[in-house]
Amino acid sequence: MFIPAVRLPGEPPWRPDPDLDLVATGWILLVGATVLVLAGSGLLRRWPLPALILLLAGAVAAAMELNSTTIEIPQFLAVDVALCVIAATRPRRTSIVAGILAVGVLAVYASIRLLLGFPIGTSEQLVVALTAVIAWQIGNSSRQSRDHAERLSVQHAAQAVTVERLRISRELHDVVAHSIGIIALQAGAASRVIDTQPSAARTAMTAVETASRETLSELRRMLGGLRRADPGPVAAPLDPMPGLADLDRLAAATTAAGVRVDVRWGGQRRPLPTDIDLSAFRIIQESVTNVVRHSGTRSCQVFIDHRDEELSIEVVDNGHGRSGTTGTGYGIAGMRERVGLLHGDFSAAARPEGGFRVTARLPVPVTLR
Question: Is residue 175 part of a domain?
Fold first, then answer.
């Protein structure tokens, strides 16, 4: 049963305690600030700007609860962390909007206190604003570094693809051009003597068959190398890469086609790294191919000199002096690229006394000298 309170005669009427109201208001602001900060932290990854607004509201509520002259650094710490995260993970436009919001709230808080006649801490306000700027700058620098690393990764990937395409192009050109040149010479010789000298025609066609098989073997090796990255097992072992050890076979095939190749060696022959050995062979092969296709001569000379610090190559003919320079082929360009990748020197030019000369100097690593 409800019993009304009894007021004694002369006792003043009951009034609410203002201190209790202030305490209750303070608790409400403190709890509200905590809820706002927790909610903003949870939403930061998915909705950064709404989350930042909640964090700013929480900082303002905490400052009001303490009746601070400014939003102090501990109250603004969550906002600084959010600014750093937004600047590091979001587009630049979003991060700029976030920075303006943070500094704007500081300015509005100070302006309202001035309008209401309350004091403000100007120096403290500037320090808090400076922490916001520093947090934004740290996040922005992190994002720029990450973007720069991604651009470099894309550039390196594109460069690697270009280098690999050029390598495949050089290999295909060197393999196919030489073999097709030999096949064309032998087939032409066979067609001219097929009626009068059947045995010579048969020999020429045998050479055509041999060159065709060697070309197919080279192409199969190249395709096998390109498929080595496949997850499945390799069906057959890959043929070894050609090198200077195959030079005698190259000279014999070219000589059989009608262009004599004289090979001379200088210095002490020694093993070479695979890339140098392959490049040296391809340079000689392409130079000899150009002699067969363009020089109009019946012979050429190849000089290989194993020096202390380099491998020297020279291919000379006494033909028309236009070997490999006509048309739109890529032979000389491919040779120059090979030498450039090995940091060597290359030249290809007509000789004053007639004919054409190709020279290449390939540095040899110190450990192999």
Answer: no
3-state DSSP assignment of residue 253: helix
Asked which of 99, 126, 152 is the last residue of a domain, the reply is 152
User: Could you identify the residue written with the tokens 């303490």?
Assistant: 66
Q: Which of 241, 249, 238, 171 is nearest to 207 (CA)?
A: 249
pLDDT digits (tens, 9 = 90+) for 145-203: 888 888 888 888 888 777 777 777 777 777 676 677 777 767 777 777 777 777 777 77
Q: Are residues 264 and 148 in the same domain?
A: no
Beta strands 260-267 and 345-350, pairing class: unpaired
25 and 147 part of one domain: yes
CATH number of the domain that 327 lies in? 3.30.565.10
Kindly give the pairing relationship between strand 260-267 and strand 356-363: unpaired
Measured in whole angstroms, the distance separating CA 61 from the mean position of its chain's CA atoms is: 49
List the structure tokens of 61: 């509520």
Q: Is residue 292 part of a domain?
A: yes
In which domain, by residue range, is 138 found? 18-152
Residue 294 CA, chain-centre distance (Å), reads 40
Strands 345-350 and 356-363: antiparallel
Write down the number of H helices and E strands in the chain. Answer: 9, 5
State how far the Cα of 215 lies from the Cα of 207, in Å rounded to an integer: 12
| 335-350 CB burial, b ≥16 within 10 A, e <16 | bbbbbeebebebebee
Burial class (CB in 10 A: 0-12, 13-18, 19+), 32: middle
Tally of domains within the chain: 2
pLDDT band at 219 (very low <50, low <70, confident <90, very high): confident
Whole-angstrom distance, CA of residue 91 vs CA of residue 140? 9
- What does the pLDDT look like over 127-145, one tens digit per residue? 888 888 898 999 989 888 8
Q: What is the CA radius of gyration of the chain?
A: 42
DSSP symbol at 217: H
Within a domain: 326: yes
Residue 135 lies in a domain: yes
- Of 237, 190, 192, 196, give the one whose Cα is nearest residue 211: 190
Report the alpha-carbon distance of residue 242 to residue 247 in Å, rounded: 9
Exposed e or buried b per residue across 241-253, where buried means at least 16 C-beta atoms within 10 angstroms of its C-beta = bbbbeebeebbeb
